[in-house]
Design a protein that fits this description.
The chain has 203 residues and is α/β, with parallel strands linked by helices. It is 32% helix and 18% strand. The protein has a five-stranded parallel beta sheet with strand order 5-4-3-6-7. Strands 1-2 form a two-stranded antiparallel sheet. It is globular.
């Protein structure tokens, strides 16, 4: 990480000094604007309840919904719009359909030729996997958060999502795990110059 290692050439002793970087940016001057909360929302129970709780305890919430060609896309979009209206919060819809349609993989959530068959013994199984979905969603949400900070809209952005609840960890999803969340922490710190202003908020 952000560490300077000083080595004494005579003794071989090493001293580690941690530091907090301050990156130069042409427009980013810092802001005292109110913190924002971005909730990656499918319109389902996990993200819906997360957004509800955060809005009730005073966070300025914005719902982030990704359209990736999922079969439930219309229902999910409707649910997110209803939730946004009920909570009186902003919502943002990000269209990833061209990207996901270009992928060679055709999964049951996106392909009209494959039936959804993840009930019964297969419930919450990676049989319903979409390549890199939560990783893509998380990275794009962090990019949005950084842009809000570097454009001086706010000094801090909290990000929450269903995958932080770890509710699907036992179902075998690698992106619903403690390790995935730890990996996002590293990505936040080393992939974004405003990473220190981005906080993950499990609810």
């Amino acid at each position: 990480g952000y560490t300077i290692i000083e080595t004494d050439l005579e003794s071989g002793f090493q001293f580690k000094k941690k530091y907090k970087p301050r990156f130069l940016h042409p427009y980013w001057k810092g802001s005292d604007g109110p913190p924002k909360a971005l909730v990656v929302s499918s319109g389902g129970i996990d993200s819906g309840l997360t957004a509800f709780i955060l809005s009730k305890i005073g966070y300025e919430v914005e719902l982030i919904h990704f359209l990736y060609g999922q079969k439930a896309m219309q229902a999910e979009e409707w649910a997110v719009r209803q939730l946004s209206k009920y909570l009186g919060c902003a919502s943002r819809f990000i269209d990833l359909q061209p990207f996901y349609k270009s992928l060679p993989e055709k999964g049951m959530l996106t392909s009209p030729d494959i039936a959804i068959d993840s009930g019964g013994d297969l419930i919450k199984s990676t049989i319903a996997w979409s390549s890199g979905r939560n990783a893509v969603f998380a990275s794009m949400t962090m990019t949005l958060a950084e842009s809000m900070i570097t454009s001086n809209k706010t000094s801090q952005v909290f990000i929450s999502a269903g995958w932080y609840q770890l509710s699907e960890e036992t179902g075998g999803y690698p992106d619903n795990s403690f390790q995935f969340n730890e990996a996002l922490e590293s990505l936040k710190n080393y992939g974004y110059i405003a990473g220190s202003g981005i906080k993950f908020l499990p609810v």
